[in-house]
Amino acid sequence: MHPETAATLHDLAMFEERQGNLQEALALYHRAFTLREQVLGQDHPKTEATRQRLTALEHLLDQESGTSLPDDPLPDASDPPLEHLP
């Protein structure tokens, strides 16, 4: 693969992310990262840039889905269940 292919995938992922197509952006970042790692190596600045965007988007999607919110306190056992709240 040519390094420009990975650059194009990275740029397309950024575009999709800005358009709000986060799942599509995530898939493109994954592809770009895999290619950059293979072609440029894991320590290359461009590989690291894609890794950072990929990690940030994964974190954002985890927060939006509620699957990974370690900073949120667990509900207190004395709190009423949500279905009983007005």
- Kindly estimate the percentage of residues that lie in beta strands according to DSSP: under 5%
What is the CATH third-level topology name? Serine Threonine Protein Phosphatase 5, Tetratricopeptide repeat
Q: Give the CATH level 1 class.
A: Mainly Alpha
Total domain modules: 1
Question: Notable features of this structure?
Answer:
globular; mainly alpha; 86 residues; Serine Threonine Protein Phosphatase 5, Tetratricopeptide repeat; 66% helix; disordered C terminus
Tell me briefly what this model is.
This protein is mainly α and about 90 residues long. It is about 65% helix and about 0% strand.
SSE diagram, text form:
Elements (H helix, E strand, L loop, with lengths): L2 H17 L2 H19 L4 H21 L21
Q: Your description of this structure?
A:
With 86 residues, this protein is an all-alpha fold. The chain has one domain: Serine Threonine Protein Phosphatase 5, Tetratricopeptide repeat (Alpha Horseshoe). Helix content is 66%, strand content 0%. Helix 1 runs parallel beside helix 3 and helix 2 packs antiparallel against helix 3. The C terminus is likely disordered.
